[in-house]
Amino acid sequence: MTEIFGVPIQALFGQLMLGLVNGSFYAVLSLGLAVIFGMLNIINFAHGALYMTGAMLAWIFLEYLGVGYWWSLVLAPICVGLIGILIERLMLQWLYKLDHLYGLLLTFGLALMIEGLFRDLYGVAGQPYSIPDEFAGAFNLGFMFLPKYRAWIVVASLTVCLATWYMIEKTRLGAYLRAATENPKLTQAFGINVPLMVMLTYGFGVGLAGFAGVLAAPASQVGPLMGSNLIIIVFAVVVIGGMGSILGSVLTGLGLGIIEGMTKVFWPEASATVVFMIMAVVLMIRPAGLFGREK
């Protein structure tokens, strides 16, 4: 068996692929957080709970309505986005001019409420969600077998991340969004509906979390605790990349997922903390993050 640095090549590339898959989830989730913080200045601690909501809705659609994976991939993020719009209109819109702490505490409380609701309805045990027939099996790469669904997760995540970056940075709509958050009064004077833009931005940000949840459903057990187990790492990814940096969140999410996967091969004991060690080092060198801008 071929080895690299004393590690079998199958194990090495298997962990590399697993790290890339985890990094894809980190990228999509941190992208949603970066959009919300960068545009609305809100630290959205409910992001993990809304990620879980997307996965649970996909399972509910399949279990009770017979709606398959592909429709869930469209409908669940829209439903999560609508939930986000309600949250923004009923609660968050009153906090934009206040300290970040108020938004963090509110969204943390919402996360506990959403998680508690699903725990009360479905318990804490995970529910299985079958892989779509189109992605059954694996590709034989010669040196390893690559599950088709894992490859789909990476492709879908990168596509959504790049499309979101292009929309915000390169289109007129993105220019309106940036203007509405940087100078809302002047933007409104030009006839742009700033409250509507802000509302849709929050809905889109949490819709990304719902999309990631549906992607995660066939790859793991669907349960009320799946969001709380992931959100702390995702926040660390956002801090490392730079709060509010769209491209920084995507690149950092993918990179840290790969680093985490490689750490499991060469230093397993540190795999659970390597992201936080990197965060500590980055904050000592660049407090604004790798791609963030000093204010």
Q: Can you walk me through this structure?
A:
- This protein has 295 residues and is mainly α.
- The protein contains eleven helices and four strands.
- Strand 3 and strand 4 form a beta hairpin.
- Helix 6 (172-182) packs across helix 8 and helix 9 crosses helix 10.
- It is globular.
- The mean pLDDT is 87.
Please write the string of helix (H) and strand (E) elements. Answer: EEHHHHEEHHHHHHH
Structural class: mainly alpha
Share of helical residues: 55-70%
Beta-strand residue fraction: under 5%
Distance between the termini: 53 Å
- Radius of gyration (CA) equals 19 Å
In order across it, which strands form the biggest sheet?
Answer: 1-2
Low-pLDDT regions: none
Total DSSP E strands: 4
Described by strand count, sense and barrel closure, the largest sheet is: 2 strands, antiparallel
Number of helices: 11
**Which outline best applies?**
globular
Summed over residues and divided by their number, the pLDDT gives a mean of: 87
Chain-wise SSE layout:
Layout lengths: L2 E2 L2 E2 H32 L6 H19 L3 H22 L9 H23 L15 E3 L4 E3 H23 L1 H11 L1 H6 L4 H23 L14 H11 L4 H21 L7 H12 L10
Antiparallel strand pairs: 1-2, 3-4
A few lines on this structure:
The chain is mostly helical and 295 residues long. The protein is built from 11 helices and 4 strands, in the order ββααααββααααααα.
List keywords for this structure.
single chain, 295 residues, mainly alpha, two-stranded antiparallel sheet, two-stranded antiparallel ribbon, 69% helix, globular
